[in-house]
Amino acid sequence: MRSIRPIQRLVDQLEGLPGIGPKTAQRLAYYMLRFPQDRLERFAEAVERLKKDTKMCERCFNVDEESPCRICSDRGRNSSQICVVETPLDLLALERSDGYTGVYHVLHGVINPLNNIGPNDIYLPQLLKRIKEEQVDELIIATNPSMEGEATAMYIADKVKEMGEKVRVTRIGRGLPTGADLEYADDTTLSRAMEGRKEME
Amino acid sequence: MRSIRPIQRLVDQLEGLPGIGPKTAQRLAYYMLRFPQDRLERFAEAVERLKKDTKMCERCFNVDEESPCRICSDRGRNSSQICVVETPLDLLALERSDGYTGVYHVLHGVINPLNNIGPNDIYLPQLLKRIKEEQVDELIIATNPSMEGEATAMYIADKVKEMGEKVRVTRIGRGLPTGADLEYADDTTLSRAMEGRKEME
Questions:
Q1: Domain that holds residue B33
Q2: pLDDT tens digits for chain A (201 residues)?
Q3: Residue A55 resides in a domain
Protein backbone atom coordinates (compact mmCIF):
# COMPACT_ATOMS: atom_id res chain seq x y z
CA MET A 1 0.00 0.00 0.00
CA ARG A 2 1.37 3.42 -0.90
CA SER A 3 1.70 5.73 2.06
CA ILE A 4 -0.89 8.20 3.30
CA ARG A 5 0.67 11.54 2.41
CA PRO A 6 -0.36 13.75 5.36
CA ILE A 7 0.87 11.05 7.75
CA GLN A 8 4.02 10.37 5.76
CA ARG A 9 4.91 14.07 5.79
CA LEU A 10 4.88 14.09 9.58
CA VAL A 11 6.73 10.76 9.78
CA ASP A 12 9.49 12.23 7.60
CA GLN A 13 9.86 15.21 9.93
CA LEU A 14 9.85 13.09 13.10
CA GLU A 15 12.45 10.73 11.61
CA GLY A 16 14.78 13.70 11.28
CA LEU A 17 15.05 13.91 15.07
CA PRO A 18 17.87 12.14 16.93
CA GLY A 19 16.94 8.75 18.39
CA ILE A 20 13.70 8.47 16.44
CA GLY A 21 13.71 5.72 13.81
CA PRO A 22 11.10 5.01 11.12
CA LYS A 23 9.01 2.72 13.36
CA THR A 24 8.89 5.16 16.26
CA ALA A 25 8.15 8.05 13.90
CA GLN A 26 5.18 6.16 12.48
CA ARG A 27 3.91 5.30 15.95
CA LEU A 28 4.16 8.91 17.06
CA ALA A 29 2.37 10.18 13.96
CA TYR A 30 -0.53 7.77 14.45
CA TYR A 31 -0.61 8.64 18.14
CA MET A 32 -0.86 12.32 17.24
CA LEU A 33 -3.85 11.56 15.00
CA ARG A 34 -5.81 11.11 18.21
CA PHE A 35 -5.00 14.63 19.45
CA PRO A 36 -7.70 17.29 19.17
CA GLN A 37 -6.99 19.81 16.42
CA ASP A 38 -6.29 22.68 18.84
CA ARG A 39 -3.56 20.62 20.50
CA LEU A 40 -1.99 19.97 17.09
CA GLU A 41 -2.19 23.69 16.42
CA ARG A 42 -0.40 24.56 19.66
CA PHE A 43 2.25 21.96 18.78
CA ALA A 44 2.65 23.38 15.27
CA GLU A 45 2.92 26.91 16.61
CA ALA A 46 5.57 25.89 19.13
CA VAL A 47 7.64 24.41 16.28
CA GLU A 48 7.09 27.38 14.01
CA ARG A 49 7.89 30.01 16.67
CA LEU A 50 10.88 28.14 18.19
CA LYS A 51 13.59 30.10 16.41
CA LYS A 52 11.59 33.27 15.80
CA ASP A 53 11.08 33.81 19.52
CA THR A 54 14.63 32.95 20.59
CA LYS A 55 17.87 34.83 20.12
CA MET A 56 21.49 33.89 20.41
CA CYS A 57 23.25 36.09 22.97
CA GLU A 58 25.68 38.37 21.12
CA ARG A 59 28.13 38.07 23.96
CA CYS A 60 28.12 34.47 25.25
CA PHE A 61 26.12 32.73 22.45
CA ASN A 62 23.68 31.23 24.90
CA VAL A 63 20.12 30.86 23.58
CA ASP A 64 17.53 33.09 25.22
CA GLU A 65 14.55 35.32 24.54
CA GLU A 66 16.66 38.46 24.45
CA SER A 67 20.26 39.42 23.63
CA PRO A 68 22.36 39.93 25.72
CA CYS A 69 20.93 36.94 27.54
CA ARG A 70 19.55 37.08 31.09
CA ILE A 71 22.83 35.77 32.52
CA CYS A 72 25.03 38.30 30.70
CA SER A 73 22.72 41.15 31.69
CA ASP A 74 22.45 40.04 35.33
CA ARG A 75 24.63 42.52 37.26
CA GLY A 76 24.79 40.09 40.19
CA ARG A 77 26.93 37.68 38.15
CA ASN A 78 30.70 37.88 38.19
CA SER A 79 31.58 38.76 34.61
CA SER A 80 35.32 38.30 35.17
CA GLN A 81 34.76 34.55 35.45
CA ILE A 82 33.82 32.80 32.20
CA CYS A 83 32.76 29.18 32.07
CA VAL A 84 33.14 27.64 28.60
CA VAL A 85 30.58 24.97 27.67
CA GLU A 86 29.84 23.00 24.52
CA THR A 87 26.08 23.52 24.30
CA PRO A 88 23.24 25.56 25.83
CA LEU A 89 22.04 22.33 27.51
CA ASP A 90 25.37 22.09 29.35
CA LEU A 91 24.87 25.65 30.54
CA LEU A 92 21.40 24.75 31.80
CA ALA A 93 22.80 21.74 33.66
CA LEU A 94 25.39 23.93 35.42
CA GLU A 95 22.75 26.53 36.27
CA ARG A 96 20.61 23.81 37.81
CA SER A 97 23.54 22.66 39.95
CA ASP A 98 23.43 26.12 41.52
CA GLY A 99 27.05 26.59 42.52
CA TYR A 100 28.28 28.99 39.87
CA THR A 101 27.91 32.78 39.84
CA GLY A 102 30.10 33.75 36.88
CA VAL A 103 29.10 34.07 33.22
CA TYR A 104 29.35 31.64 30.31
CA HIS A 105 30.58 31.18 26.79
CA VAL A 106 28.79 28.61 24.63
CA LEU A 107 30.97 27.10 21.91
CA HIS A 108 28.12 25.29 20.13
CA GLY A 109 30.34 22.31 19.48
CA VAL A 110 33.88 21.03 19.99
CA ILE A 111 36.93 20.77 17.79
CA ASN A 112 36.54 17.46 15.98
CA PRO A 113 38.95 16.87 13.08
CA LEU A 114 37.22 13.58 12.14
CA ASN A 115 34.01 15.51 11.46
CA ASN A 116 35.90 18.37 9.86
CA ILE A 117 35.13 20.79 12.68
CA GLY A 118 38.01 23.17 13.36
CA PRO A 119 38.41 25.99 15.91
CA ASN A 120 36.77 28.47 13.52
CA ASP A 121 33.65 26.34 13.06
CA ILE A 122 32.62 26.84 16.69
CA TYR A 123 32.34 30.09 18.68
CA LEU A 124 35.99 29.95 19.71
CA PRO A 125 37.35 33.07 17.92
CA GLN A 126 34.58 34.97 19.71
CA LEU A 127 35.81 33.58 23.03
CA LEU A 128 39.39 34.69 22.36
CA LYS A 129 38.07 38.14 21.39
CA ARG A 130 36.18 38.33 24.69
CA ILE A 131 39.33 37.42 26.62
CA LYS A 132 41.19 40.19 24.84
CA GLU A 133 38.49 42.83 25.27
CA GLU A 134 36.83 42.03 28.59
CA GLN A 135 38.36 41.99 32.04
CA VAL A 136 38.63 38.20 32.53
CA ASP A 137 40.26 36.76 35.65
CA GLU A 138 39.38 33.13 35.21
CA LEU A 139 38.38 30.90 32.34
CA ILE A 140 36.76 27.65 33.51
CA ILE A 141 36.75 25.14 30.69
CA ALA A 142 33.72 22.89 31.17
CA THR A 143 33.72 21.00 27.88
CA ASN A 144 32.74 17.33 28.21
CA PRO A 145 35.42 14.93 29.54
CA SER A 146 35.54 13.18 26.16
CA MET A 147 38.37 13.00 23.61
CA GLU A 148 37.10 16.03 21.70
CA GLY A 149 36.19 17.93 24.84
CA GLU A 150 39.69 17.43 26.28
CA ALA A 151 41.35 18.37 22.99
CA THR A 152 39.25 21.51 22.78
CA ALA A 153 40.16 22.37 26.39
CA MET A 154 43.87 21.96 25.62
CA TYR A 155 43.57 24.03 22.47
CA ILE A 156 41.87 26.88 24.34
CA ALA A 157 44.42 26.77 27.17
CA ASP A 158 47.30 26.93 24.66
CA LYS A 159 45.71 29.80 22.73
CA VAL A 160 45.16 31.85 25.87
CA LYS A 161 48.76 31.26 26.94
CA GLU A 162 49.97 32.38 23.48
CA MET A 163 47.94 35.57 23.79
CA GLY A 164 49.92 36.44 26.93
CA GLU A 165 46.79 37.59 28.77
CA LYS A 166 46.89 37.33 32.54
CA VAL A 167 44.01 34.85 32.75
CA ARG A 168 43.82 31.88 35.06
CA VAL A 169 42.69 28.93 32.94
CA THR A 170 41.06 26.09 34.85
CA ARG A 171 39.48 22.81 33.85
CA ILE A 172 36.28 21.60 35.49
CA GLY A 173 37.10 18.97 38.18
CA ARG A 174 37.12 15.37 37.14
CA GLY A 175 34.37 14.26 39.38
CA LEU A 176 32.79 13.27 36.08
CA PRO A 177 33.54 9.78 34.74
CA THR A 178 35.45 9.89 31.45
CA GLY A 179 33.21 9.61 28.38
CA ALA A 180 30.13 10.77 30.26
CA ASP A 181 27.86 13.55 29.10
CA LEU A 182 27.91 16.72 31.19
CA GLU A 183 24.27 17.32 30.52
CA TYR A 184 23.24 14.13 32.31
CA ALA A 185 25.45 14.46 35.39
CA ASP A 186 23.63 14.86 38.72
CA ASP A 187 23.74 18.20 40.49
CA THR A 188 26.13 17.13 43.27
CA THR A 189 28.65 15.74 40.81
CA LEU A 190 28.47 18.99 38.88
CA SER A 191 28.88 21.09 42.05
CA ARG A 192 31.89 18.98 43.10
CA ALA A 193 33.40 19.25 39.68
CA MET A 194 32.99 23.02 39.82
CA GLU A 195 34.70 23.21 43.24
CA GLY A 196 37.44 20.75 42.30
CA ARG A 197 38.59 22.62 39.19
CA LYS A 198 42.36 22.91 38.81
CA GLU A 199 44.95 25.06 37.04
CA MET A 200 45.96 24.03 33.51
CA GLU A 201 49.67 24.20 32.87
CA MET B 1 17.15 29.85 35.99
CA ARG B 2 13.56 30.19 34.81
CA SER B 3 12.86 28.45 31.53
CA ILE B 4 13.08 30.01 28.09
CA ARG B 5 9.42 30.19 27.06
CA PRO B 6 9.60 29.44 23.31
CA ILE B 7 11.74 26.39 24.07
CA GLN B 8 9.61 25.31 27.02
CA ARG B 9 6.47 25.47 24.89
CA LEU B 10 7.95 22.96 22.45
CA VAL B 11 9.34 20.79 25.27
CA ASP B 12 5.82 20.60 26.75
CA GLN B 13 4.39 19.41 23.43
CA LEU B 14 7.14 16.85 22.83
CA GLU B 15 6.75 15.49 26.37
CA GLY B 16 3.14 14.68 25.51
CA LEU B 17 4.32 12.00 23.07
CA PRO B 18 4.68 8.37 24.19
CA GLY B 19 8.21 7.33 25.16
CA ILE B 20 9.52 10.89 25.31
CA GLY B 21 10.45 12.03 28.81
CA PRO B 22 11.41 15.54 29.97
CA LYS B 23 15.15 15.05 29.27
CA THR B 24 14.61 13.73 25.75
CA ALA B 25 12.06 16.45 25.02
CA GLN B 26 14.58 19.11 26.04
CA ARG B 27 17.29 17.52 23.90
CA LEU B 28 15.00 17.37 20.89
CA ALA B 29 13.91 20.99 21.30
CA TYR B 30 17.52 22.20 21.46
CA TYR B 31 18.37 19.99 18.51
CA MET B 32 15.55 21.56 16.54
CA LEU B 33 16.94 25.02 17.30
CA ARG B 34 19.66 24.19 14.78
CA PHE B 35 17.16 23.54 11.96
CA PRO B 36 16.73 26.22 9.31
CA GLN B 37 13.42 28.09 9.66
CA ASP B 38 11.94 26.59 6.48
CA ARG B 39 12.46 23.11 7.88
CA LEU B 40 10.67 24.11 11.08
CA GLU B 41 7.87 25.50 8.96
CA ARG B 42 7.49 22.26 7.02
CA PHE B 43 7.46 20.41 10.35
CA ALA B 44 4.83 22.75 11.80
CA GLU B 45 2.69 22.42 8.70
CA ALA B 46 2.86 18.63 8.81
CA VAL B 47 1.60 18.73 12.41
CA GLU B 48 -1.08 21.29 11.67
CA ARG B 49 -2.39 19.50 8.54
CA LEU B 50 -2.18 15.96 9.97
CA LYS B 51 -5.85 15.61 10.84
CA LYS B 52 -7.20 18.12 8.33
CA ASP B 53 -5.83 16.13 5.41
CA THR B 54 -6.85 12.70 6.70
CA LYS B 55 -10.27 11.10 6.98
CA MET B 56 -11.60 8.11 8.83
CA CYS B 57 -13.15 5.63 6.40
CA GLU B 58 -16.94 5.58 6.97
CA ARG B 59 -17.00 1.86 6.32
CA CYS B 60 -13.93 0.26 7.92
CA PHE B 61 -12.63 3.16 10.08
CA ASN B 62 -9.18 2.99 8.60
CA VAL B 63 -7.37 6.34 8.31
CA ASP B 64 -6.80 7.56 4.77
CA GLU B 65 -6.93 10.63 2.55
CA GLU B 66 -10.44 9.84 1.31
CA SER B 67 -13.53 8.02 2.58
CA PRO B 68 -14.27 5.25 1.73
CA CYS B 69 -10.59 4.42 2.02
CA ARG B 70 -8.49 3.10 -0.84
CA ILE B 71 -8.87 -0.50 0.38
CA CYS B 72 -12.66 -0.32 0.68
CA SER B 73 -12.97 1.26 -2.75
CA ASP B 74 -10.54 -1.19 -4.40
CA ARG B 75 -12.80 -3.51 -6.45
CA GLY B 76 -9.99 -6.05 -6.62
CA ARG B 77 -10.34 -6.76 -2.90
CA ASN B 78 -12.64 -9.46 -1.59
CA SER B 79 -15.23 -7.54 0.40
CA SER B 80 -16.81 -10.68 1.82
CA GLN B 81 -13.72 -11.26 3.95
CA ILE B 82 -13.23 -8.79 6.80
CA CYS B 83 -10.10 -8.70 8.92
CA VAL B 84 -10.62 -7.01 12.31
CA VAL B 85 -7.61 -5.13 13.70
CA GLU B 86 -7.03 -2.94 16.74
CA THR B 87 -5.32 0.01 15.06
CA PRO B 88 -4.51 1.48 11.62
CA LEU B 89 -0.87 0.53 12.27
CA ASP B 90 -1.86 -3.13 12.56
CA LEU B 91 -3.64 -2.79 9.21
CA LEU B 92 -0.48 -1.33 7.68
CA ALA B 93 1.60 -4.20 9.05
CA LEU B 94 -0.78 -6.77 7.48
CA GLU B 95 -0.75 -4.88 4.18
CA ARG B 96 3.05 -4.94 4.20
CA SER B 97 3.03 -8.72 4.76
CA ASP B 98 1.26 -8.93 1.41
CA GLY B 99 -0.79 -12.11 1.83
CA TYR B 100 -4.25 -10.70 2.39
CA THR B 101 -6.73 -9.61 -0.29
CA GLY B 102 -9.89 -9.01 1.77
CA VAL B 103 -10.99 -5.82 3.49
CA TYR B 104 -10.59 -4.59 7.08
CA HIS B 105 -12.37 -3.23 10.08
CA VAL B 106 -10.37 -1.05 12.49
CA LEU B 107 -11.65 -1.15 16.08
CA HIS B 108 -9.43 1.71 17.31
CA GLY B 109 -8.85 -0.09 20.59
CA VAL B 110 -9.78 -3.23 22.50
CA ILE B 111 -12.25 -4.03 25.23
CA ASN B 112 -10.40 -3.24 28.44
CA PRO B 113 -12.53 -3.18 31.60
CA LEU B 114 -9.57 -2.01 33.72
CA ASN B 115 -9.36 1.15 31.62
CA ASN B 116 -13.14 1.43 31.45
CA ILE B 117 -13.27 0.66 27.74
CA GLY B 118 -16.35 -1.35 26.84
CA PRO B 119 -17.58 -2.74 23.48
CA ASN B 120 -19.35 0.53 22.68
CA ASP B 121 -16.24 2.63 23.23
CA ILE B 122 -14.52 1.09 20.19
CA TYR B 123 -15.87 0.64 16.63
CA LEU B 124 -17.48 -2.69 17.49
CA PRO B 125 -21.18 -1.83 17.05
CA GLN B 126 -20.23 -0.62 13.56
CA LEU B 127 -18.61 -4.00 12.87
CA LEU B 128 -21.74 -5.89 13.94
CA LYS B 129 -23.82 -3.58 11.73
CA ARG B 130 -21.53 -4.37 8.77
CA ILE B 131 -21.93 -8.10 9.38
CA LYS B 132 -25.70 -7.65 9.35
CA GLU B 133 -25.83 -5.45 6.28
CA GLU B 134 -22.96 -6.63 4.08
CA GLN B 135 -22.44 -10.02 2.50
CA VAL B 136 -19.73 -11.34 4.83
CA ASP B 137 -18.39 -14.87 4.46
CA GLU B 138 -15.47 -14.72 6.83
CA LEU B 139 -14.46 -12.57 9.76
CA ILE B 140 -10.75 -12.86 10.57
CA ILE B 141 -10.09 -11.52 14.04
CA ALA B 142 -6.55 -10.14 14.09
CA THR B 143 -6.52 -8.35 17.43
CA ASN B 144 -3.20 -8.65 19.30
CA PRO B 145 -2.50 -11.96 21.09
CA SER B 146 -2.69 -10.17 24.46
CA MET B 147 -5.20 -10.56 27.28
CA GLU B 148 -7.39 -7.74 25.99
CA GLY B 149 -6.98 -8.76 22.36
CA GLU B 150 -8.06 -12.33 23.14
CA ALA B 151 -11.00 -11.15 25.23
CA THR B 152 -12.12 -8.84 22.45
CA ALA B 153 -11.81 -11.69 19.93
CA MET B 154 -13.95 -13.94 22.14
CA TYR B 155 -16.52 -11.21 22.63
CA ILE B 156 -16.83 -10.62 18.87
CA ALA B 157 -17.10 -14.37 18.13
CA ASP B 158 -19.87 -14.72 20.73
CA LYS B 159 -21.76 -11.71 19.42
CA VAL B 160 -21.65 -12.96 15.82
CA LYS B 161 -22.88 -16.38 16.94
CA GLU B 162 -25.76 -14.72 18.84
CA MET B 163 -26.72 -12.81 15.72
CA GLY B 164 -27.22 -16.10 13.91
CA GLU B 165 -25.51 -14.84 10.76
CA LYS B 166 -23.86 -17.47 8.59
CA VAL B 167 -20.37 -16.05 9.01
CA ARG B 168 -17.21 -18.06 9.47
CA VAL B 169 -15.30 -16.47 12.38
CA THR B 170 -11.58 -17.18 12.42
CA ARG B 171 -8.72 -16.07 14.64
CA ILE B 172 -5.36 -15.12 13.18
CA GLY B 173 -2.89 -18.04 13.54
CA ARG B 174 -0.74 -18.16 16.63
CA GLY B 175 2.55 -17.86 14.88
CA LEU B 176 2.83 -14.79 17.05
CA PRO B 177 4.31 -15.17 20.52
CA THR B 178 1.79 -14.33 23.26
CA GLY B 179 2.07 -10.79 24.54
CA ALA B 180 3.86 -9.56 21.42
CA ASP B 181 2.73 -6.59 19.40
CA LEU B 182 1.26 -7.32 15.97
CA GLU B 183 2.69 -4.15 14.60
CA TYR B 184 6.28 -5.27 15.21
CA ALA B 185 5.99 -8.82 13.87
CA ASP B 186 8.07 -9.63 10.81
CA ASP B 187 6.31 -10.17 7.47
CA THR B 188 6.82 -13.96 7.35
CA THR B 189 5.36 -14.43 10.82
CA LEU B 190 2.40 -12.32 9.80
CA SER B 191 1.91 -14.26 6.54
CA ARG B 192 2.11 -17.57 8.44
CA ALA B 193 -0.33 -16.33 11.02
CA MET B 194 -2.70 -15.35 8.22
CA GLU B 195 -2.44 -18.79 6.60
CA GLY B 196 -2.64 -20.67 9.92
CA ARG B 197 -5.91 -19.05 11.06
CA LYS B 198 -8.44 -21.43 12.57
CA GLU B 199 -12.17 -21.70 13.22
CA MET B 200 -13.47 -20.32 16.51
CA GLU B 201 -15.97 -22.57 18.19
A1: 5-49
A2: 668 999 999 999 999 999 999 999 999 999 999 999 999 999 999 999 999 999 999 999 999 999 999 999 999 999 999 999 999 999 998 998 878 999 999 999 999 999 999 999 999 999 999 999 999 999 999 998 888 998 999 999 999 999 988 899 998 876 666 677 878 887 877 877 777 777 776
A3: no
Question: B21 and B119, same structural domain?
Answer: no
A residues 13-42 lying closer than 8 A (beta carbon) to B: 13, 16-19, 23-24, 26-33, 35, 37, 39-42
CATH number at residue B93: 3.40.1360.10
Closest approach of A160 to chain B, Cα-based (Å) = 29
Cβ pair A53:B24 closer than 8 A: no
Same domain assignment for residues A149 and A193: yes
Judge: B31–A48 Cβ closer than 8 Å, yes or no: no
* CATH number of the domain encompassing residue A29: 1.10.8.420
- Asked whether residue A32 falls in the same domain as residue A79, the answer is no
- CA dist A64 and A50 (Å) reads 11
The answer to whether B46 contacts chain A (CB < 8 Å) is: yes
